[in-house]
Every structure is written in C-alpha cells, then in structure tokens.
Design goal:
The chain has 413 residues and is an alpha/beta fold. It has 14 helices and 15 strands.
Length: 413
C-alpha cells in the first residue's frame, strides 16, 4: 500500500467541503491527486484548498479522462444526486475505493447492481453520510450502546431544510443548473438519509418495512420558487429488523429549520435538543433509574469522542471531518465503513419505496435485505425513476400534484 491514499474528487462544489475537512482536519494518510468538474470556477476553488507545486492535483473537465487517468486509488463522488450509483459501480469495477454522497442509488436495480459490484471488488464502498457524526449523535449512540436505556421501542429523525426564494430559485432556475437538474424533480421522500442514517448509527437497527405520506406545498411557493416538486413534507414510518418503529421526516422544506433525533426505550430515552444540536436531553423513568443516577432528566453538552478542535472546524457540525476521516481509515483497513453498501442501499430502498407508498394510498412496502441475493434478485430489473432528461422521460410521477414539463413553465424550455 502506498504511504498516502490517492484521492480523486468527482464534483467540486460539494467536494470542496470534503477537501477542506481532510486538509484542515489534518487527516493522516491521504493526498488529493485529481479533480473533475464541468465548471472551471469550481475546479479552481477546489484546487485552492489543496497543496500547490508538485503535489497540486491535476484538473479535469471530462469524466472519461478523469477515470482513465490512473491518478487515484479512491474517489469522492459528489456529482449529481441521481447519478452516484453508475459512477460508484464503475469505480468499484476498477478496484477504486468509493466515497459516495447521498443517496447511494436512485433505482432499486441500481442498488442491486451496486451491491454486486461491491461484493466482487477488493475496494471499499462507504456512503458519505455525515449527519450521524455530530457531537450529539455520537453521545446518543454511546448512551444506547451502554445499555441503561433498555430495548429500543421508538425512534425519530428529522431533517428539515426550508429555502427562501433566492436559494430556491438558484437551484430550480434552469438558466443556472439546466432544465433537468435533479432538485427540480426530486420526490420528497428521496433524500431521507440525513434523517434515517443517524438512527441506524445510534441503534444498529435496519429498516424492514416502510409506509409514507406527503403534504403539499403552498401553490404560490410552487410557482414563485420555480418548483416541479409540489410536496413540502414527506413522513415515513419504518419498522426495523428488531421490531422497533422509526418516524423519519426527511428533506422537508417547511419551517422551522433544523435537525432532531430521539430514541425512546424501555427504561428511558434520549434526544438532541431542538435549536441546539450540541446538547443532549437524557431521561429515565422514575422507577428505572440506573444505580447511582439521581435525576430523571439531564440536559448537557457532551464531549467529542476525540479531536474536538478538528471536528469543530469542519462543516455540518463536525460531521464532514469524521465521515471523511473514517473513509480514509476504512480504505487503509483500520475500521469498517459506515454506512456500508448494504446499509446505504437499504436507505435508498426506504426512499424509493416510501414514494411508492405515497402514490399508492399509503400502502406498506417491505425493504429487501441487500445482503441476500435471493431477495435482491426480485428488484434487479426495477428501474422506476423520477428524473427526466432530454431523451429519457421519467416513468413515475414526481408528486401527487405534479404538472407535466412544458405546461407549467413553458417559457423555460
């Protein structure tokens, strides 16, 4: 193994955040050797975060040249949301380690193919899901795993991210990002990982069944913000492999902004504090207080597991530092990746089948076990896909109130 893991970055807008976290966090054992983005200004910004001179990364605007360059052993996939799987599969087939942004796959067929590619490859696959690695979620994991709270009964995770007109227009305006940019067509359940992954990280439980509902946005927002996705909220109820229930509210775009996580167990429970993600609220039933504990409720700011200064300097409340560092360590055989390919694909299935639940009268759908070839084989041809392109229309509705392209904003075509 080389002294330093050579990393290529594919998509330099979000990729720049990971470059910053790796270098500013002084993560050991890596070097950024290649950058690829179709926009030169993004390449320049990413390059400015890297060493110069002989260690400066080579820049590419062409994906084929980037992947054929032989300049990297691992790739950070921060390209478009709906295009991660095909490049992850390509990299794994080349023996290149993969660090893939959310979500892992946009169709169930892609999820099956991704698992098969990971199993055949000697390379590591890890999903770049940073929200589990906040100060408070590390603490919720510690509290649950030490056992004083008892068996999990119910858990909740929320990722609520409304946007004002200027930010929404920036993403949805076809003049900036193109008519078919994924954000314009993303079903409201599809970006569930920021809400769900922390619950899996904390408890170790995996989703087995999902039912979902969606709530529509205000009509004036849909028009004024140039949206095609008309839903503002998507809520899913998930049963887990150990019989617990999780309520997941992912990628909701109505106020108030914030993330929140809660675990409710037989003897007690714990949650992040709304409005202050650095704090944790720990509660026990009065009749199940552990020995030596006097208060039924405590609110406190936990310590980081280590390297607090490095984490605090990174984005997403420290999550960018930890997830990037753990990827490098996983590639070097120092830890198991989380989320691994099976967990990542299970979350993709929750997103995809959650939307089918919305469209089919809130019907419940089973989540396949992606470790089981017999189960996943059922979905190897399941290519229902909500993202259109110039030559490929979508084959499922985007929203319960969707109006077809060309009828809603004809002046944009």
């Amino acid at each position: 193994m080389r002294k330093n893991l050579r990393i290529g970055v594919f998509g330099c807008w979000r990729g720049s955040a990971y470059i910053r976290s790796l270098y500013a966090g002084k993560v050991e054992g890596f070097r950024i050797t290649a950058l690829c983005d179709k926009k030169p200004e993004r390449l320049e910004r990413a390059a400015s975060l890297c060493p110069t001179g002989r260690y400066a990364p080579k820049q590419f605007t062409d994906a084929e040249e980037f992947f054929a360059s032989g300049l990297f052993d691992a790739v950070i996939l921060t390209n478009y949301f709906n295009e991660h799987a095909k490049y992850a599969i390509r990299a794994l087939n080349m023996g290149i380690h993969v660090f893939s942004e959310t979500m892992a796959a946009s169709t169930l067929a892609d999820a099956v193919a991704l698992c098969r590619a990971a199993e055949k490859s000697k390379a590591v696959y890890m999903m770049a899901e940073n929200y589990p690695y906040s100060r408070s979620n590390f603490e919720l994991r510690r509290l649950y795993r030490e056992g004083t709270l008892g068996k999990l009964i119910f858990a909740e995770g929320e990722y609520v991210h409304p946007m004002g007109p200027s930010d929404s227009y920036k993403y949805n305006n076809p003049k900036d990002n193109g008519y078919y940019h994924w954000r314009r067509f993303n079903p409201v359940t599809y970006y569930c990982s920021h809400a769900l992954a922390p619950l899996i990280f904390i408890t170790g439980e995996l989703p087995k069944r999902v039912v979902a509902m969606a709530a529509q946005d205000a009509p004036e927002h849909i028009r004024d913000y140039h949206k095609f996705r008309t839903d503002a909220a998507g809520v899913m109820l998930i049963t887990t492999d150990h019989g617990a229930v999780m309520r997941v509210n992912g990628s909701t775009s109505c106020a108030p902004h914030g993330n929140w996580y809660r675990i409710s167990c037989v003897k007690g429970g714990a949650e992040t504090v709304r409005g202050d993600q650095s704090k944790v609220r720990l509660c026990y039933n009065s009749w199940t207080l552990p020995e030596g504990v006097e208060d039924t409720e405590t609110i406190y700011t936990p310590d980081w597991p280590s390297d607090g200064d490095r984490a605090d300097a990174a984005g997403h409340g420290g999550g960018d530092y930890w997830v990037a560092r753990y990827f490098v360590e996983a590639c070097r055989g120092l830890r198991d990746p989380f989320p691994d390919v099976y967990t990542a694909c299970a979350m993709s299935a929750v997103a995809i089948l959650g939307w089918r639940s919305v469209l089919n009268g809130n019907r419940a759908y089973d989540i396949p076990d992606f470790r089981n070839e017999e189960e996943r084989r059922k979905y190897e041809q399941d290519r229902q896909y909500p993202y259109p392109s110039e030559n490929c229309p979508n084959n499922i509705p985007y929203s319960t109130g969707y109006v077809a392209p060309g009828n809603d904003y004809p002046e944009e075509k």
